[in-house]
Amino acid sequence: MSVRWLRNTILYVVLGVGAFVSVFPYLMVVFTSFKTGRQLNSTSPWLPAIPGTLGNYTKLFNGSIANIAFPSYLWHTVLLTAILTAGQLVFTTLAAYAFARMRFPGRELLFWAYVATLMVPNVVTMIPLYLIMRQIGWVDTWMGLVAPYVFGSPYGIFLMRQFFQTLPRDLEDAARIDGAGVWATLTRVILPLSKPILGTLSILTVVFAWHNFLWPLIITSGDDTKVVTVGIASLQGNLGADYNLMMAGSFVALVPLIVVFLLFQRSIVRSVALSGLK
């Protein structure tokens, strides 16, 4: 009993230290966001502000910062996340079902060639994508912002295809015997059984879209299309960075994901398990 107790104690201590190391940067974001410039320079960054101030948040939302429309950036991020999530669910599902169930020449070759693009870093395709968007006039537009991601992704299609292949074909055969076509089979038989993987894809897409920074930074320049990640980076001016405002903006951007995690803890844990699906 003593050996087991000691082993469990060591395990929980290690887990506790790991959890603290993971959470500590977020605590520093919160502490810094409630500090004034004088407090930031006079206190340790890992100590909370005493007394704290809401002045940084007030500046973000009352429009007192020149050339920064932070509430608009938040709305743009919400809209971008909704568009990308809806697009991923629709187009990824259709493509994955075609690769998993339909027979056509070159299906396997086309699928694995598409999945092989996962090995190409995103930064490699940024300049070609930007040049394409400039040629068709989509720079600094919503079309240019969403076009590279709204029609599906290699990882999402791979994930959905692998899940579809685990479903019994007998269900589809029975639906066809009853007179159901491809669309009816997909919507009435396959999709109701695919809620876990659809939830996984939704969560992964929401997190990606909310945190996406490099492509919005490249393709957008005006306030009409700027998202919150680029808006936070804009708080760093030529005369230096206002870390108090940046941390306040970072915490505001972090709150929606914290809410999503608290509301969908079980789905997120399940999504982590399903994302390792063979």
TrEMBL record:
Membrane topology: Multi-pass membrane protein
GO cellular component labels: plasma membrane
One annotated GO biological process: transmembrane transport
Occurrences of domain ABC transmembrane type-1 (ranges): 74-264
UniProt cross-references to PROSITE patterns, sorted A to Z: ABC_TM1
Cellular location(s): Cell membrane
Predominant place of localization: membrane
Domain of life: Bacteria
Keywords carried by this UniProt record: Cell membrane, Membrane, Transmembrane, Transmembrane helix, Transport
TM stretches of this protein: 12-34, 73-97, 109-130, 142-160, 197-218, 245-264
InterPro entries: MetI-like, MetI-like_sf
PANTHER family: ABC TRANSPORTER PERMEASE PROTEIN MG189-RELATED, ABC TRANSPORTER PERMEASE PROTEIN MG189-RELATED-RELATED
Family classification: Belongs to the binding-protein-dependent transport system permease family.
Protein name: Putative sugar ABC transporter, permease protein
Organism from which the protein derives: Actinocatenispora rupis
